[in-house]
Amino acid sequence: MSKHIIDDAKRCLQCKNPLCTKGCPVATPIKESISLLLDSRIPEAGEMLLANNPLSLVCSHVCPQENQCEGHCVLGKKGSPVHISAIEEYISDYYLNIYKPKKSNNSRGRVAIIGSGPAGLTIAFYLAQRDYDVTIFEQNDQVGGILRYGIPEFRLPKSVIDRFTERLYEMGVKIKPNATIGANLTVDDLFRDDFKAVFIGTGVWRPSKINIKGESLGHVHYAIEYLRNPSVYNLGKRVAIIGAGNVAMDVARTVFRHDAEEVYILCNKGESTITARPHEVEYAKIDGARFEFYKSAVEFVDGGVMVADTEVTVDEDGYETVTPIPGTENLFNADSVIIAISQGPRAVIVSSSKGIDVDDVGLVKTDESGRTSREGVFASGDVVTGAKTVVEAVRIAKNVANAIDEYIQTEYGEGAKQEGKEALDT
Ligand SMILES: Cc1cc2nc3c(=O)[nH]c(=O)nc-3n(C[C@H](O)[C@H](O)[C@H](O)COP(=O)(O)OP(=O)(O)OC[C@H]3O[C@@H](n4cnc5c(N)ncnc54)[C@H](O)[C@@H]3O)c2cc1C
Ligand code: SF4
Questions:
Q1: What pTM was computed for the model?
Q2: How open is the CA angle 127-132-138, to the nearest 5 degrees?
Q3: What kind and span of H or E run contains 120?
Q4: Are strands 174-176 and 133-137 parallel, antiparallel or unpaired?
Q5: Which of 32, 53, 63 is the best mutation target for the ligand 2 pocket, counting ligand atoms within 8 Å of the beta carbon and taking the most?
Q6: 3-98 and 207-343 share one CATH topology?
Q7: According to the CATH classification, is domain 110-205+345-425 in 3.40.50.1260?
Q8: Atom 42 of ligand 1, nearest CA residue
Q9: Distances from the Cα of 115 to the Cαs of 11, 55, 175, in angstroms?
Q10: Residue 67 CA: which ligand is closest?
Q11: Which numbered atom of ligand 1 lies nearest the CA of 384?
Q12: Which among 147, 225, 343, 356 would be 20 to 30 A from 410, CA to CA?
């Protein structure tokens, strides 16, 4: 075990009222798992973490810990907080290798999971544990959603998702890759084939357009599409990125690892409005990214992008307006430009299936337990909340798994009710 992990675990004060757990969206039993670790009981610590959060290992790599568990550690008030994520990673990594899941006996009915991002994976895990016959339909050739096709390898090794997938197979979960629900098979087909409930966890994969001239040119790309498979792009040496959120930082750092020599991040406002996590910005800067503030793209042209200086005004309600200043337009030279401003949901499922209500931007409407307007159809994750975080997707998916279980037992399973309750209570 790395010495710094032991040292950090020993720094934990074992607070009576642990603020770290309160700061974690899934209330991870941090002090209990640290105590077990120091007591040479790693498998028990791992079991505890996995039962609470099937994606514990993923979260230890990608959570914004500075605002969550570590941001709440009392030691952080006067010095550095316990490095909780490193300890969680150590325990969960160990445990994911030795974990021998119970195989579902498939006795409690079929459940269809559409989408294999954090939301779908969490629900598949909990429902297979409760003996449902779970099938994941995934439009890509491998599972993981953004974990595999968005977050770069240097932040989250793909082997983490591969190992989790292996455990799902051992639990009896069936995975149908290259299966886009809505393009061929529909939600109606799933109900026809005796799936008792359908879960939609399809995320937000439609890149937002800037809607300016030249956006379709060959050197202009969207971040979410680029990150799917960076090695198939020939971006050249000088790359401009539009946007300053976490996705833009992932693009900047990825581009540097694929031949680019100069990377510029163009922001239409000032430095204080960067939405990316501060340490992601630091990493991007260390890699060599340079920031250009108060620059707004006004047209994509051969050789780069025309940008204008901007003026930012704030009205009395605090609402900001960004206006390009006429006459300041200049060519910003770039071999390629990548747009990283935001993503929205695609409409492929709701357009092919009746009765699933969406809001004005296409996000699926649900109650707090993930029930959509169509009976037996549930949804959660980014397709409901808009772009959020992995741990948020897990948090809500835990409730939705309970709601699906309860729905199926109420509608179909008299005999299984007690068994279901026991599973819910553990
Ligand atoms: C580049 C990037 C970096 C990020 N970094 C972080 C981070 O560091 N930390 C963090 O906490 N969060 C991060 N996030 C956000 C986080 O990844 C998401 O909030 C989370 O993945 C949402 O999970 P989900 O299950 O709702 O959707 P997704 O992960 O988007 O998964 C949806 C899945 O559904 C599949 N699908 C879509 N339509 C269909 C269909 N019709 N049929 C079958 N399958 C379908 C998709 O292929 C995909 O596999 C990042 C997001 C991006 C874009
Ligand atoms: S799940 Fe995330 S926020 Fe919670 S303890 Fe783990 S790393 Fe921290």
A1: 0.94
A2: 70
A3: helix 118-129
A4: parallel
A5: 63
A6: no
A7: no
A8: 180
A9: 40, 16, 10
A10: 2
A11: 26
A12: 356
8-29 pLDDT, tens digit each: 999 999 999 999 999 999 999 9
Positive or negative, the Cα torsion across 188, 193, 198, 203?
Answer: negative
Mark 85-99 as b/e (b = at least 16 C-beta within 10 Å): bbbbbbbbbbbbeeb
Residues β-bridged to residue 344: 206
Average pLDDT over residues 29-38: 98
CB atoms under 10 Å from CB of 175, counted, come to 18
What's the CATH superfamily of 3-98? Alpha-helical ferredoxin (1.10.1060.10)
Give the ligand at the shortest distance from the Cα of 179. Answer: 1
Q: Please state, in angstroms and rounded to a whole number, the distance separating the CA atoms of residues 125 and 136.
A: 11
**Residue 397 vs residues 91, 121, 312, 365: alpha-carbon distances, Å:** 23, 9, 39, 15
Residue with tokens 């960067």: 274
What is the CB < 6 Å shell around ligand 1? 62-63, 114-120, 137-140, 145-146, 150-151, 180-182, 201-203, 205, 224, 227, 246-247, 250, 348-349, 381-383, 387-391, 393
Superfamily (CATH) of domain 207-343: FAD/NAD(P)-binding domain (3.50.50.60)
At residue 228, what is the residue type? R
Distance 130 CA to ligand 2 centre (A): 25
| Nearest ligand by distance to the CA of 147 | 1
Ligand 1 centre and the CA of 421: distance in Å?
30
Distance, CA 78 to ligand 2 centroid (Å)?
21
Query: 336 C-alpha to center of ligand 2: Å?
Result: 36
Determine the Cα angle at 96 with ends 91 and 100, to 5°.
125
* E strands in 24-86: none
For residue 143, the ligand 1 atom closest to its alpha carbon is 49
Chain-centroid distance of CA 249 in Å reads 15
Residue from 8, 49, 60, 82 to probe ligand 2 pocket by mutation (most atoms less than 8 Å from CB) = 60
How many other C-beta atoms can be found within 10 angstroms of the C-beta atom of residue 30? 26
**Domain segments of the chain: what residues?**
3-98, 110-205+345-425, 207-343
What spacing in Å lies between the alpha carbon of 173 and ligand 1's midpoint?
20
pLDDT tens-digit map of 215-268 = 999 999 999 999 999 999 999 999 999 999 999 999 999 999 998 999 999 999
Alpha-carbon span 21 to 19, nearest angstrom:
5
Alpha carbon distance 363, 218 (integer Å) = 30
